[in-house]
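User: Could you check the structure of this?
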Amino acid sequence: MSDAKENAALSSIAASVIITLGKGWAGLATGSLALISDAAHSLLDVAATTMTWLAIRAAAKPADEDHHYGHGKVESVAALVETAFLFLLSGAVAIEGIRRLWDEQSTVKIHWLAILVLVLSIGIDAWRFTSLRRVAKETHSEALAADALHFSSDLINSTLVLAAFGASALGYPQADALVAVGVSIFIAIAGYRLAQRTLNTLLDTAPIGSAGQIKKLALAVPGVVNVEDIKVRQVGADLFIEIEISVARSMPFDRVGILKDLIITAIRTEFSQASVTVTATPVTLDEETVLERVIIIAARRRIPVHHVTVQEIEGKLSVSLDLEVDGKMSLNDAHTVASQLENAIQEELGRETEVETHIEPLVISSMIGRDVDEEHRQKIANSLIKHALSSETITDIHNVRVRVTDHGLIVNYHCRVAPHLDVTFVHEAVDQLEHRVRKDNGDILRIVSHTEPVR
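Assistant: Sure, the predicted C-alpha cells are below.
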C-alpha cells in the first residue's frame, strides 16, 4: 500500500513540473493573467506534490515508543500546509485580477501554442485527478486526496482560461481578468474544504456515521447487552476504535474473550484499516435469578457451594446453602469464611435477607492414590450391587473403581436408572445407596457415582 502511494505521488510531481513549464511559457507569451495565475497554481502543485511524497514516506514509518499511533498524521499536517498555499495563491491572483479590471490597457495575445498547452494540460490534469482519487480512496490517504483536489482545480482553471481566450478573441479583453478572479475564488473554496477535512482529522473528529455503524455491528453480536461508549479517531489511513460494552456478569471469563474477538472481526469487515480495542463491563441482568446471583457471589470468592435453596417466606427472602472449606481449617477460620459469604449475599440481595450456611470439609490438595487389590474392589462392588437391588431404582452397577489414599478410599462407579425419573428422585436414591455402602465399609472417604438412563 505504501509503494502505491509513493508511486502515485512521484507521478504527480512529474506531471506538475510538465504542466507548470508549459503554462508558464504560454502565459508569458500571451500576457494572460488567467494563464499566468494558472501556471502559478501549477508551480504550487509541484511544491505540494513534493511535500506529499515526503509526507507519505514519513507516515509509512511504524509506531514506536514515542508515537504509539504511528506517524499517519504527518499526511494531515502536509495537507494542511497545502491549504495555506492555496489561500495565499488565491489572494494574490484576486488582487492582480481586480487591478487589471481597472486597467483598460491590458490585452491578451492569443497564440495557438498556448491553446495547445492548455488542451494538453487539461488531459494530464484529468488523468492525474482520476488516478490520485482512486489511490487515495483505496489507501485512505489525505495527502493524496489533497493532491487530487489540486489537479481537479487545475483542470477547471485551464478550462476557464480557454474560455477567457475565446472571449478575448470576440472582443472582450476584460474576460481574462474576470476569469482570474473566478479562479481565485475557486481555489479559496477548494482550500477551505480541504482545510476543514484535514482539521477534523487532526482534532480526532470521528468520521461521519462511523460511531453509529460500529454500535450497530457490536450489538449484533450475541452476548452484548449494550454498547456503553465508542471512541473513534482517524490517523492517516488507520482508524483507531475504542468500544466499551456491557455483558452479563454470569458470562464465563473465557467466553468474554471470545465475544471480544467476534466484535473485532465484525467491525473489521466494514473498516478494514481499523485497530479495535474492546472493554467489557459485567452487569446484573433483570432476568438473573436469586440462585444465579448467589452462585456468582460464591464463585467470585472462590468458595465451592452446593445445595443452594431459595425460599420466599411471607415476603421475606431466605437462602440456605452448603459451603466447602479446607477440612484442616479451624472452625473459627471456617466460620469467618462463612460469615463473609453471608454478608456478601445480604449486600447483594438486601440486609433483610435470611442467609444460613452449612460448613462441610473439602480436601484442597490433590491426593496420591493407587488401585486396591481385586479382592477389595470386588467386595465394595458387591456391596453396591446388593444395596442397588434393594433400592428397586438403581440397576446395572458397572465400571467400579476403588483407589486407596492417605485420607481413605475413593470409590467411582456407573449405574443406570429409568430415563423418565426426575433428577431429584434419582439423587436421593443414589444418596441412600451410598450411605448404606459406607456403613458396610468404614474406610470409604468418598463415593462418586455416574448415573445413566437405561437404554
